[in-house]
UniProtKB/TrEMBL annotation:
This is Sporulation initiation inhibitor protein Soj. Pfam families: AAA_31. Residues 63-238 form the AAA domain. The gene is soj1. It catalyses: ATP + H2O = ADP + phosphate + H(+). Belongs to the ParA family. Dimerizes in the presence of ATP but not ADP; ATP-binding is required for double-stranded (ds)DNA-binding. Interacts with DnaA.
Length: 315
């Protein structure tokens, strides 16, 4: 994995990007040019204090729904879904995490036994269970889960012949949106019907990009899919931000990837960069987010920083 090889992949991306800039500009919100000062590291007790209005989670009357998506696997989608959700829940905001990935890693990563579930997101999408029956209350305060099982792997085939197949998740979440401040959807590593459902249900999309070789491969296709969803299914969909993950400061390649991504996406790149971190890797095997597993680890501190950035977007 040398620099020359990476540069070739960047050139390939540039050719795709040239024809997409106008469409991608639609995703930038009106405030994207505002610069914000980077805040120092902090622990969970230094996050925004618990919100006072416990009865109604949002001034807008509905949860802010964010799909975490990238069709490439291994970019820390699930790691981000679990830990960002947990860090926001730690501030007193009520959060629902939707596991829309048949692998069910967000479900097991939060300590839920998939084999012991009677209903899941699969039943929700097929209209065989009400959302209230599927929601799992976790031991983590303010954080709930819509879990996934292996049954979800067959959902795309079953959805193909259904009416309004792209809107199934959006409709299912409607009765829950008034109960939470945030709903996060952990998408599968594909651009099939499950991801389309997530993008149709979401207000925003958060794109994790790993600081590694071929990092930009597939991003062009993802953005084209997002803009197709905007035009045909969900005109309100906007880009929440791009999150750089798996950063290793010891490599020139990682530093160059950061520069390239910031060059393309500008201030839509989160200030927080998530590094490779042992505790982040270990936490799922214990069924805990990293702030519960090791709150003083670098991974925990940085996901708390990311949570603060997301909170800033409310303002």
């Amino acid at each position: 994995m040398n620099i020359d090889g990476y540069r070739r992949s960047v050139k390939k991306f540039e050719r795709k990007w040239a024809g997409m800039q106008e469409d991608c500009a639609l995703l930038w919100n009106k405030n994207s040019n505002k610069k914000k000062k980077r805040k120092g590291l902090f622990h969970v007790e230094h996050l925004r204090p618990t919100v006072e209005n416990k009865g109604f989670p949002s001034d807008r009357g509905q949860a802010k729904t964010i799909a975490i998506a990238n069709q490439k696997g291994g970019v820390a989608k699930t790691t981000t879904a679990i830990n960002l959700s947990a860090c926001l829940a730690a501030t007193g905001r009520r959060v629902l995490l939707v596991d829309a990935d048949p692998q069910g890693n967000a479900t097991s990563g939060l300590g839920v036994d998939r084999d012991g579930l009677d209903v899941s997101v699969y039943d929700l999408l097929l209209g065989e269970a009400q959302p209230e029956r599927v929601v799992v209350s976790l031991q983590i305060e303010n954080l709930d889960l819509l879990p996934a099982t292996i049954n979800l792997a067959g959902a795309e085939v079953e959805l193909v012949g259904m009416k309004d197949r792209e809107f199934r998740l959006r409709s299912a979440l409607q009765s829950l949106r008034g109960r939470y401040h945030y709903i996060f959807i952990d998408c599968p590593p594909s651009l099939g019907l499950l991801t389309i459902n997530a993008l149709t249900a979401a207000d925003r999309i958060l794109i994790p990009i790993q600081c590694e070789y071929y990092a930009l491969e597939g991003v062009g296709q993802l953005l084209q899919t997002v803009n197709l969803v905007r035009r045909r299914l969900n005109p309100q969909l906007e880009l929440e931000g791009v999150l750089l993950t798996m950063f290793d400061a010891r490599t020139n390649l990682a530093i160059q990837v950061v520069d390239e991504v910031k060059n393309y996406f500008g201030d839509k790149v989160f200030r927080t960069v998530i590094p490779r971190n042992v505790r982040l890797s270990e936490a799922p095997s214990h069924g805990k987010p990293v702030i519960a597993y090791d709150p003083r680890s670098r991974g925990a501190i940085l996901y708390q920083e990311l949570a603060q950035e997301v909170i800033e977007h409310e303002e």
